[in-house]
Write a structure and sequence with these properties.
Structural class: alpha+beta
Shape: elongated
Number of domains: 1
CATH architecture: Beta Barrel
Radius of gyration: 29 Å
């Protein structure tokens, strides 16, 4: 008879410590991913909600302080002038008539724009005016300069240095955040020809009428804030004659800073306080 060989099974024993270490590593990795996700969510909430809340509250307080200093209450917006996506501007403005030139009298009977009522240059980062744009429901302080920390991140609208002051001959050029930190210029893309922009100072209220828009240009296009504003990138867009202009600039597309969106208007009325 043949001898029967018995096969002895080989039992491989796994190290329980290795399993525990692997499980612990996976658990730690999962915790790190969760923590990172929570941190990112908090950062997004801070940027999109908290900075807006803080900046808007601070800007509103500054507007109230300016009005107290000037000794006059804030004017109430006219019916139908609240922000909206369509049809909210004055009927006369929406009728297609061109904006009145800076040297002409306003049709509504206001005084002609006058050079001797223009505001003096304020200190750097000083809030000295209030801008109101009924179409988009905006009321915000205007401060000297366009620094982020001292002006824009406070929810203010910043005045480009070395451009005209409100009501002055030349270009009263302004910048504002489109997203976060109060985002005062979030909806200036909704502005249409004929919409009103008022700028109040201690001495006068200046009314500009929206005339042209430039939906996109380069961040370095300095021509849009020149005394006679005209794009260097798209030279067929802008003006050729001297006048009293206002320029609003902000980033575009939203949540980026790659390009600039520009809105221009002409001075059409000055009313002394």
């Amino acid at each position: 008879m043949r001898a029967v060989r018995e096969r002895i099974p080989v039992v491989v024993q796994h190290d329980p410590r290795g399993r525990r270490l692997a499980a612990r590593g996976l658990w730690t990795s999962a915790e790190l991913v969760m923590t990172l996700g929570v941190v990112l969510l908090l950062l997004v909430a801070h940027q999109l909600w908290w900075t807006n809340r803080q900046a808007r509250a601070g800007a509103a307080h500054t507007v109230q302080a300016l009005q107290r200093d000037w000794g006059e209450p804030a004017p109430e917006p006219a019916a139908g002038d609240e922000g909206g996506s369509g049809g909210g501007a004055d009927e006369g403005a929406q009728g297609g008539s061109p904006a009145v030139g800076a040297g002409d009298a306003d049709k509504g009977g206001g005084s002609s724009p006058a050079a001797d009522t223009t505001a003096r240059a304020p200190r750097r980062s000083q809030a000295y005016a209030v801008i109101r744009i009924p179409r988009i429901g905006l009321t915000a302080p205007v401060a000297q300069g366009i620094s982020k920390r001292g002006v824009l991140d406070k929810g203010y609208v910043g005045h480009y240095p070395r451009t005209a002051q409100p009501g002055g001959s030349g270009n009263f050029a302004l910048a504002g955040h489109r997203n976060t930190h109060g985002e005062p210029f979030r909806y200036i893309n909704r502005l249409r020809r004929g919409d009103r922009i008022t700028v109040e100072t201690r001495d006068a209220v200046y009314t500009y009428t929206v005339d042209k828009t430039l939906d996109r240009t380069g961040a370095g296009d300095s021509g849009v804030v020149a005394a006679v504003p005209r794009s260097n990138v798209r030279p067929y867009v802008g003006y050729r004659a001297a006048g009293s202009y206002v320029t609003l600039t902000t980033c575009t597309p939203e949540f980026t800073s790659r390009y600039r969106l520009v809105v221009w208007g002409k001075l059409t009325d000055v009313r002394g306080r």
